[in-house]
């Protein structure tokens, strides 16, 4: 998740010869024009950095969306995140086409539009994001609707014990116990880093489970189904822990994110 700067290649004819030492042993002072030019380049670099960063993130996100190998997920970028998908491509949803269904062991099933979710009270939290593969992004803001609010609105039945999440990539799934799902630090997230969730980050809506490894925070969320028991998700079926508390699962000792 950490950015790396590519090494520049210098042509031999473009190399400058080292300055000769001044008679008193100190380096030769730079001229006024060189000094002012250096300041100008520095200011330009500071101003351009956010634009260049957004461009890099956009490129990597677009490449990963068309990469069936998943190798682009190994490329670091300056935003700190790596882009993962378990499918070769993911359809895009707009505000007009997005729907989030809440069903299963509930009295009042419902389908929410993006406008419906935005109209509900929003909770903002800032936590570290920790991936089970080792990378970490500190102090990342997320904002959205507490999952417990949607569950309460649906009327969870007494026989319920868990919640299953499905995604519109057509493959990914996750689960939480009902007690975990009702935690105040579990969101149906609409915003990340104080911006609307982009497609590469699982937008327009994703799950965010702050105290657990990031694979529990399912991207491209489309379904919330209340069930009797926990059903292993995509990565749990492949050996990951079902209870994915940061620092207390998957054989890792990372610092907790909460």
TrEMBL record:
Residues 89-235 form the Oxidoreductase molybdopterin-binding domain. PROSITE patterns: TAT. The keyword Transmembrane applies. Keywords: Membrane, Transmembrane, Transmembrane helix. The chain crosses the membrane at residues 34-52. InterPro entries: OxRdtase_Mopterin-bd_dom, OxRdtase_Mopterin-bd_sf, TAT_signal. Residues 1-27 have a biased composition (Basic and acidic residues). Residues 1-29 are annotated as: Disordered. PANTHER family: OXIDOREDUCTASE MOLYBDOPTERIN-BINDING DOMAIN-CONTAINING PROTEIN, PROTEIN-METHIONINE-SULFOXIDE REDUCTASE. This is Molybdopterin-dependent oxidoreductase. It comes from Streptomyces incanus.
